[in-house]
Structure formats: C-alpha cells, structure tokens
Amino acid sequence: MDTIEKLFAQGGEGAYFGEPVTQVEHALQSAYLAEQAGADDETIVAALLHDIGHLLPPESAEGYMDGYGTVDHEKLGADFLRARGFSEKVAQLIEHHVNAKRYLVFKNPKYFARLSEASLKTLEFQGGPMSEAEAATFEANPYFKGILQMRTWDEQAKIPDLATPSMEYYLAKCRSVQNIH
C-alpha cells in the first residue's frame, strides 16, 4: 500500500490526459461513482486504481500515446496489483476497462460519437473498435457487466472540483480487500 500511496503522491497531481481533472481527482471520482452506485468494495477499489498503470515508473512502460498516457496501462496496472495481493476480480476490472471502450465502439455507433477528444486519440493506440470475434470473447468474461460499468464511471469521472471522500478513505478500502499472502 505504501507504493500505491507514493505513486499517487508523485504523479497524481498531473493532468488527466486532455481532461479538466488531475489523476487523483479522476481516481477519486471513479471510486466515488462506484460507491454511489452501490458497488462492492472490490469494485470500488478497482475504480480507484483503474489507471494506476499510468503512474508506474517510465521503465515499466512499453511506450506512450502521444501525451495521452502509457500504452497498455490497463495490463501494467492489473499485473502490478496482482503482484501485491489484489484479487483477480480487481485485476480483471482494471485490465479490461480499455476493452470495454473498444467493445462499446464496436457495438454502438452512438457511443463512438460521445467519446471525448482524449478518448478518441487513445482509442487509436488501443486497437480501435473490437472485431466481432473479439466482442464475443469479451462478452464471455465473467466480469463483463462490471467491466462495462467501470467504463461508465471512468468516462463520467472528469468533473472539475467535484467533492469526493479523501484518498485516505479509499486507501483504507484498498487495505481491506488486499490479500497479503
């Protein structure tokens, strides 16, 4: 947990890639939206930490998306959290939140039209819309519905100056769901 706290302290005040909030504000708002929706603690923690891959040291990244964050941040973040004792549910919700965007673009042209400028730019780096085969595989994921909900919170969590509970409040939830072996 100390490492997670340090990552937010070191990089969390940076802008959230083309959006009017910081990394910390985006994380807190995502967790807050999950909590307001009645999500369980694991899902709230996943919402808080879904973009932690963007905060990892540069040497862990395989590249960057032209000022829009780390390539494969979702996989880097999920693997980082698995290695620290977080559940497969937390990891899956994080690892597939980008796939949810790709899926929704494939399934719904109106969704594509609603994407922010930053989301459109990152979609190019993330593989574009899913194919029919990719969509079928994604729909079979046991956390499919939760992943889609995570995507909704991710997109909504961009409101400047929104009041949320503190980082300490949500880090306590992280501690409560972390499985130290």
UniProtKB/TrEMBL annotation:
SUPFAM superfamilies: HD-domain/PDEase-like (SSF109604). Residues 23-118 form the HD domain. InterPro entries: HD/PDEase_dom (IPR003607), HD_domain (IPR006674), HDIG_dom (IPR006675), OP_Dioxygenase (IPR052567). Pfam families: HD (PF01966). This is HD domain-containing protein. It comes from Spirosoma terrae. The lineage of its organism: Bacteria, Pseudomonadati, Bacteroidota, Cytophagia, Cytophagales.
